[in-house]
Amino acid sequence: MGIFRLLTILLIIWLVYALYKRYIKNKSQTRSSKKAKNLEKVVKCEYCAMHIPEHEAIVDKGRYYCTEEHKRISKNK
């Protein structure tokens, strides 16, 4: 009866370890997928070469600018 008890305890320990390992793996995959969703395209200002998020950029004829002033100065060149 002693060997049966030992095998049962070892089986329970192994199951707990396997479930814990699976939980940690799924948790890290969830984090990395959330990070990927938050990525945003960054563009370069044609005048000063500063990098800014695309949603903040001012677009004129396919060119990106960080401010209206840079857009105006670039047009006057």
- Computed CA radius of gyration, to the nearest angstrom: 28 Å
Binned strand content:
15-25%
- Shape, per Cα inertia axes: rod-shaped
**Mind describing the biggest β-sheet?**
2 strands, antiparallel
State the secondary-structure class: alpha+beta
pLDDT below 50 for ≥5 consecutive residues: which ranges?
none
The N- to C-terminal Cα distance equals 92 Å
Number of strands: 4
The SSE order reads: HEEEEH
Percent of residues in helices = 55-70%
Number of helices, where a helix is a run of at least 4 consecutive DSSP H or I residues: 2
SSE layout and pairing:
Blueprint lengths: L1 H36 L4 E3 L6 E3 L4 E3 L2 E3 L2 H9 L1
Antiparallel strand pairs: 1-2, 3-4
Annotation keywords:
two-stranded antiparallel ribbon, 16% strand, 77 residues, alpha+beta, 2 domains, rod-shaped, Wheat Germ Agglutinin (Isolectin 2), domain 1
Question: What's the short version?
Answer:
The protein has helices at residues 2-37, 68-76, and strands spanning 42-44, 51-53, 58-60, 63-65. It has 77 residues and is of the alpha+beta class.
